[in-house]
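Recall that a protein's primary structure is simply its ordered list of amino acids. Everything else, from secondary elements to tertiary packing, is in principle encoded there. The following example makes that idea concrete.
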Amino acid sequence: MAPEMIKEKIHTRKVDVYSFGIVLWELLTALIPFHDMTPEQAAYAVAHKNARPALPASCPLAFGHLMSRCWATNPGKRLQFDEIVAMLESYEESLKNYSLL
């Protein structure tokens, strides 16, 4: 959950962008974020300590950058979904150029 939802503040669709960043992390790592914490501890860490899942060294730089922008503390600095789609499409084009897809 996005920090502003945990704190029960007014929120926008940017909470979904935050969640997308977390889901992307889960897909790339096949791990559960904050697995060593209770849900309450994880929520407190996210909302009050700006905790985010650690990016593994094997994470492609482009995806690490995308996730970090999705889970920015300030919702106004998070991407819009049309920006996310454009970034993912550009990654796809780059991979095609290298015959990786």
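The first helix runs from residue 3 to 6. The domain at 3-97 is CATH 1.10.510.10 (Transferase(Phosphotransferase); domain 1).
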